[in-house]
Design goal:
With 96 residues, the protein is mainly alpha-helical. It has 3 helices and 2 strands, in the order αααββ. Helix 1 packs across helix 2. Helices cover 50% and strands 10% of the residues. The protein has a two-stranded antiparallel sheet. It is elongated and about 50 Å long.
Length: 96
């Protein structure tokens, strides 16, 4: 997206059952020690790298199946689920 196509602001709905979003943004703001807008942007930038890194860990040959299962279970969240068979797969909530 070019700068001419970038909107001046983006709204995140936090009403009608989405109140949890505000709490999540507040947590990110405390974690990154910055304002809410930057926290959302930092979290969005980080998630791709974190998921890719977790998948690389789960694909390591030196881990047992049990270790992989435990790591996958530990790293899975409400929106991202790590599973493995012979290959590692990642499912995001949007794909469910």
């Amino acid at each position: 997206m070019s700068h001419s196509e970038t909107p001046g602001s983006v709204r995140i709905r936090t009403d009608d059952g989405n109140e949890w979003r505000f709490d999540a943004i507040q947590k990110a703001s405390r974690f990154y020690d910055c304002n809410r807008s930057n926290a959302v942007a930092f979290a969005c930038e980080d998630i791709d790298q974190l998921v890719a890194a977790a998948a690389r860990v789960l694909e390591r040959d030196d881990l047992t199946r049990e270790q992989r299962r435990e790591i996958a279970e530990t790293l899975s969240t409400r929106a991202v689920s790590f599973e493995f068979e012979t290959n590692v797969s990642v499912t995001t909530k949007g794909e469910l």
